[in-house]
Amino acid sequence: MDSKFEVYYFPIHGRGEPIRLLLAFAKANWESKFVSDWPNEKFNTEGLLYKQCPMLIEHTASGKENRLVQSCAITHYIVDLFNLETDDKFKNALLSSYFEGINEINDKISRYVHEGRRLNEDITETIKKVKDDQSIASFIQYNEDILAKNGANGYYLDNKMTYVDIIAFNIVDKYLHFPGLDDLFTKEKTPNIMKVYENVLNNPEIAAYLKSEKRQPYPSFNKK
Ligand SMILES: N[C@@H](CCC(=O)N[C@@H](CS)C(=O)NCC(=O)O)C(=O)O
């Protein structure tokens, strides 16, 4: 794969981070291109179909430029380019289903966090709402069950690290660094998910990326 990639996004983790992690894992040639003047860029940047980030910009070896928006579309494009799934169509569909199931955990929690910020709610109130929401606990448990069925070996499917493991890593990592929600995922409560987390953390490409200057800091209200 001779293309060069730019991840056009704000200088935060957010929706840009899973894309950066996937490109790092895939050993792609990539860099971040940060938004610097959003009110202007939002309406004057080519390819921003919905006036939102992230956008993946690909410069191909033949000199073509491809611009793609919408996180899930970007994820699937990277997965396809770098073969981050399997050779079996049904298994790939299953991975896609796991991908949505994992994202659902993050979506459910994020709704409370965004709503809490909008209402200027005390963060302890938001955390309580997240912890009281049985559907979040259930979705975490469903992930534990999927992983148990695969042998509790630290992978979502078979014995291979796929994009789904990377996506799960990103979400677990986010909440491990979110004070008050840092006990959502633990070795005691969610041993199978934590095995995936450790596997990805120890992947050489991911480890190198996390230590690099490319990695953006955690949000200021977060630890570390
Ligand atoms: N469905 C889109 C959502 C993108 C989105 O909400 N982007 C936010 C940042 S995370 C954004 O660009 N906000 C600025 C704005 O809408 O003006 C995706 O998954 O990429």
| Silhouette | globular
CATH classification class of the largest domain: Mainly Alpha
SSE string, helix = H, strand = E? EHEHEEHHHHHHH
Largest sheet: 4 strands, mixed
Tally of discrete structural domains: 2
Using the coordinates shown, work out and report the CATH topology of the largest domain. Answer: Glutathione S-transferase Yfyf (Class Pi), Chain A, domain 2
Taking strands numbered 1, 2, ... along the chain, how are they ordered across the largest sheet?
Answer: 2-1-3-4
Instruction: Work out the radius of gyration.
Output: 18 Å
Strand content: 5-15%
- Helix and strand composition category: alpha+beta
Distance between the termini: 35 Å
Share of helical residues: 40-55%
The count of DSSP E runs of length 2 or more, i.e. the number of strands, is 4
Bound molecules: glutathione
Low-confidence stretches: none
